[in-house]
Amino acid sequence: xxxxxxIGRSMTRSQRGPKRSPTPTSATYSPNGDMxxxxxxxxxxxxxxxxxxxxxxxxxxxxxxxxxxxxxxxxMLPKYVDIMExxxxxxxxxxxxxxxxxGVISECCTQQACPTMSAGPTLSYTWMNQERKQMHLPxxxxxxxxxxxxxxxxxDEKVFPTKSGHDFPQNFPATVKHIYRQLLxxxxxxxxxxxxxxxxxxxxxxxxxxxxxFLSFGREYELLEIKDVKGQSSSPVGVGQLWExxxxxxxxxx
Length: 254
Ligand SMILES: [Zn+2]
Known about the structure:
- By secondary structure, this protein is mostly helical.
- The chain has helices at 72-75, 83-105, 139-155, 172-200, 204-220, 226-230, 238-249; strands spanning 39-40, 117-120, 123-125, 127-128, 134-135, 231-232, 235-236.
- The chain has one domain (71-249): Butyryl-CoA Dehydrogenase, subunit A, domain 3 (Up-down Bundle), CATH 1.20.140.30.
- The strands form three sheets. A three-stranded antiparallel beta sheet has the order 1-3-2.
- Helix 3 (139-155) packs across helix 4.
- Residues 1-49 are annotated as: Disordered.
């Protein structure tokens, strides 16, 4: 069943576990409406840039994983579980795990080291402020805003209901798609700018598995657009190549 067609069904809800608060810093801006497409920095060159192969695309790191195999089976909706509940629970887990990874490497993600929210040699994401103006923010600021914004949504009973008898709102699919897109950007920045630190911690099997699970889940429930994973030809997202590599290896499906 399509996640986007399933809203509005009546459902019996049970309470999820207690929420955790990874205490992101306060957000001054919130992403209103749709986020803008990635902005190339500098402006698109005529010839594609020569990009050295990223470490995360090299062996043995590219297929380092906690568990070998295809992720399809673990993203499938379990029997008797409501699809909204399943998506909510997984979003919560992706957010929590990614936030913990970021917490570990955050001392390296500083305003000086990461003055923009980079995700590829020619790609830096921009943030839309409350006046709907595109802003280049240092990566740690951008990521703090994203994580604080998501935490606020997760804590909002009207957006992510946890109590029995409370239904998910009509716009829940759109909200989680928006969350997904921002989480993807955080993954993309960590791969692009901090993969050597992940390697230093010997966490690449764990991080790859988390990201492959995230991609697989996002495709299964239509939360992830291919164009957001790959970016534009003049400003590709670094992890777009990882997505391709994992598809060729059979770790991910189309
Ligand atoms: Zn950084």
